[in-house]
């Protein structure tokens, strides 16, 4: 929540792991959270998905973004950046889990 560098590294590693078909992430916005979590994660998501495609497999990324339009990170901007990187973005953890299940079953 505070420093997404480890998460970004794990996303990159997942691209190289053929046993990984879906990555499920939780992003929390608000005071005390990273100032731009999408900006820190999106640069890892798009290349990871591309690397998986190049290896002949798909890698789904599902992100639950918890926040409001009043959060300093900007809910709409965070959602847009993650979507642009190729992630399926949901507004709650339950929806994210369902989306990850669907992607995993169609892997």
Structure description:
The chain has 107 residues and is an alpha/beta fold. The chain is 49% helix and 16% strand. It has 4 helices and 3 strands. The chain has helices at 5-15, 37-54, 75-84, 93-105, and strands spanning 22-28, 60-66, 88-90. A 3-stranded parallel β-sheet has the order 1-2-3, with helices on both faces. α1 (5-15) packs parallel to α2 and α2 (37-54) runs parallel beside α3 (75-84). The protein is globular, with a radius of gyration of 13 Å. The N and C termini lie far apart (28 Å). The model has no long low-confidence stretch (mean pLDDT 95).
User: Largest sheet, if any?
Assistant: 3 strands, parallel
Count of extended strands:
3
Ends apart, CA distance between termini = 28 Å
The SSE string, one letter per element, is HEHEHEH
Approximately how much beta-strand content do the residues carry? 15-25%
Q: Averaging pLDDT over every residue, what do you get?
A: 95
Number of contiguous helices: 4
For the biggest β-sheet, the strand order reads: 1-2-3
**How does the helix and strand content classify structurally?**
alpha/beta
Give the secondary structure arrangement, pairings included.
Layout: H1 5-15, E1 22-28, H2 37-54, E2 60-66, H3 75-84, E3 88-90, H4 93-105
Parallel strand pairs: 1-2, 2-3
